[in-house]
């Protein structure tokens, strides 16, 4: 058998085996009866959630604002959302006057932050039913309500030149509320406990990419074409 024929055969075998493995990857044969992509996606979601738990640090930081009274008038998207936000903010002892989709808020910013962080912690730990019992709203509605409240309050406090307070609300919004909402239902895992699997996945990705590349290269060389630069 000529060298070109051997190279062509080698390339075909590499590509055939590549697509066999690809078919396995897309088959629901991995733990949980999911395909390989979903399995790895779920794993990395759990690991990234485990690295996104900033609530204890945020509670320490928010304690500095206990006793800081803020006053603001904010406008929400509609009356229903204004009612939900009023329920969340007012539950922490703040004074809230509802006027259609507009809220007049006056209260202790530290107490407001602590209440939000407690709610976010429940959602981060997938205990959304406790928020349902607490407010009569779904966990998603509660966290979204805090998100829009802090977004509006942060903008209004910036307009008032209360920059420090506005920044703290924005930080909690991004570092706590958003991860708690986005990772709801995902079980958090420590990356160290899955280090071998992470390394194996990355190594497989590199090898699998080369696998396909060499298969293409051998076929072209077997046809008498040279790949160069």
What would you say this structure looks like, in words?
The protein is mainly alpha-helical. It has two domains: 3-49 and 188-222, no CATH class; 55-182, no CATH class. Helix content is 66%, strand content 8%. The protein has nine helices and three strands. It has helices spanning 3-25, 36-50, 55-62, 79-90, 109-124, 128-135, 139-159, 163-182, 195-222, and strands at residues 69-75, 95-99, 102-108. β2 (95-99) and β3 (102-108) form a beta hairpin. The longest helix has 28 residues, at 195-222. The radius of gyration is 27 Å and the shape is elongated. The two termini are 29 Å apart.
What's the structural blueprint in terms of helices and strands?
Blueprint: H1 3-25, H2 36-50, H3 55-62, E1 69-75, H4 79-90, E2 95-99, E3 102-108, H5 109-124, H6 128-135, H7 139-159, H8 163-182, H9 195-222
Keywords: Membrane, Transmembrane, Transmembrane helix
Transmembrane segments: 12-30, 195-220
Q: Report strand %.
A: 5-15%
Strand order of the largest sheet: 1-3-2
What general form does the structure show? elongated
Unreliable stretches, pLDDT < 50, 5 or more residues? none
Tell me how many strands there are: 3
The separation of the N and C termini measures 29 Å
Helix content: 55-70%
Query: How many individual helices?
Result: 9
Over the alpha carbons, how many angstroms does the gyration radius reach? 27 Å
Mean pLDDT: 89
Instruction: Summarize the main sheet.
Output: 3 strands, antiparallel
Q: Could you spell the SSE succession in H and E letters? A: HHHEHEEHHHHH
Query: What is the SS-derived class?
Result: mainly alpha
Number of domains: 2
